[in-house]
Amino acid sequence: MSGLRVNSFFHGNSSGVNFYIILNPIDEETGKLQVSNCSGSKTAGDWNLSVTPGMDTSKVIIDLTRNLQLCLPNATDCCTAPLCVLETLQVLACHDSVVLAHLLIQAEIYANSSFTGNVSEDASVIPNQVFQPLGPCPCDLTDGACDVCCCCDRECTPDLKQLFNESCFTGVFGGDVNPPFNQLCSTKTDEYTPDWFPFLCVQSSLNNTPFLGYFYHGSISTPRVPSFKIPLQTSHAKVFTGYSQGDPIMTEENEYFTIPQQSMAGQCVGNAPVAYLHDIDVKCLTDLTSYKEGLPHDVRINSGTGDFIQQNVIYRTIADMGKFIAKSESLPTTEIFCQNVMFAENYTFICKDENIEGINVTVFLGRLCDGEILTQRFTAKFVSLKSNNAEELSGNPGYQVGKPVRAANMNASDTSGSLNIFQPAGRGLCTSATNTPVLFGLDSFSGCILEVGINEDCTLLRGNVTERLNSLIQATHVGKRSNSSYSDVNDWVEIIRLDPFNPNTSVSTGNLKGICPDIPANLNIRIIFADVGAVQGIPRQEILAVQTSYSTVIWQFQCGLTCENTVSFLPITASVQFIKVPAQPLIPMTRFQINYTEFDCNRNDVCWPQLFYPVTQFYTGEPYGQCLAKGLSLAFLVFLAAILSNPWFSKVWDNFLI
């Protein structure tokens, strides 16, 4: 049950099934449940029944329609007592006057404690905190009763105070809200008291304490609630004004929108929240006994502006189930049980700035039988509504971590390019390996295995390896930003290619077979990027330079007792390294700063270069004009003191008096 709504599910085929709701089905005399006779309606008292049919599961919703506010004088349609609703409900599922299932609900609902009526004129008068404490007795926690050990509680009679007079709370909590402050003459102590204290101490009453009004004139700042703490909402109000990257997507019920995802241990978690702008592509293993239905597709999503979006669901049937059935045990010859289940779900979130504009869901269904292992696949992809082509943007407009790096081939008519690394499959051979794009901010290392014979020509081997590695980089430039335009050359940086080492052809290994030096088996991709700003608090990152190079190895044929009719393996790899640098180069230190460290403010307690810091524009503690006026006044007084202390000034003054 959530709020004023009860959600339940009817498992099975709901065609021809009627649902009814009955109020107070218990006999008052016997206290037993009355016999159900499939009579009733979908409305009983203040309760309404609605059913959302599905393929194998139907959602049953029971809503309470009455007002839960406490009654004011001369008011109707309200709760006369704090216990507002105490009723018993029974929900029946009938087919041809036969009860298929029933649900018993015991509702105990109290009135809403929030007050929405007119405020009475008999309001408590809050004293002005500037002149007297706001709470003179902080330990008085119970209204109309005496709090134990709280001697300042006015509800405590003298007889009660005698019971705990020796154990009263002390300090501010016990009512001493005006403690003696350090400037009072009466608080002088022999320890840590300067000699000039009697001349500058204050004679004042404790009622005139400097703590009064200390927090009175202060600015109020609204705390920012972290993304992992969702405030409790009593109504479906607007949670926030938009999604940021990494925020969990919320539903109409103010709950997380979840898709099964893999945990750190590699297992699939069914209730994992979907994060905004984080793509998902996971595979989970299950069988018929452990199969569970996911989140219903009729759940509406919070768009980020308080509106709710319905999912656009398309159902399809799997034709080739061999791609999803990972393992099949030896099935018995007798009849086995099979069921229609979900094989895959593909979610496409259409986004615009900080809001979600639409959700398209494609569900693939198939039949799963006992003894079969199903590999379910769940994907979630965020697509920008502003993009005019099928290519997905990768940032804000700067790059975001985990998004593909954009590449272009400026030397071809079709300027679209790619920057990839290996994605091995099967036995890890290069013949079956595919490519996957380089993701921004994620250092990667992948490779595949190349089969090489003992009679392999070294020159041809170097060319074959170089060609395979070069096929990963089908581009001449890389986009600085995610929204780099193909028509603007300044939006792209050229890839600096360091060609593989060309060995000296005159050097030979003799008549030895199976040894080839200087094989460029490793491709190194280095990408330099920097933070160049921020968009709504999120750093905007741009790529500054890209370099590719090769590392060589010495390949030697490996075999067992015989080397005839066998092949050896040569692993070739591709690595990606992201290097972050400052957006602006650091100012180099001067020779004076290196040699004379006593003037370095970071290494010494006395900082002579900052002697006139208060009168410079870097000081922001006070207005610059006010600081400048104070500085000039101080300089004038110093100059005047220097003149008056000079001996010739006294002679001039004496002559002036004569």
UniProtKB/TrEMBL annotation:
Residues 112-221 form the Tectonic-1-3 N-terminal domain. The keyword Repeat does not apply. Keywords: Cilium biogenesis/degradation, Glycoprotein, Signal. One of its GO terms (cellular component) is MKS complex. Residues 242-384, 395-581 form the Tectonic-1-3 domain. One of its GO terms (biological process) is protein localization to ciliary transition zone. The keyword Glycoprotein applies. Part of the tectonic-like complex (also named B9 complex). Belongs to the tectonic family. This is TECT2 protein. It comes from Asarcornis scutulata. The lineage of its organism: Eukaryota, Metazoa, Chordata, Craniata, Vertebrata. The gene is Tctn2.
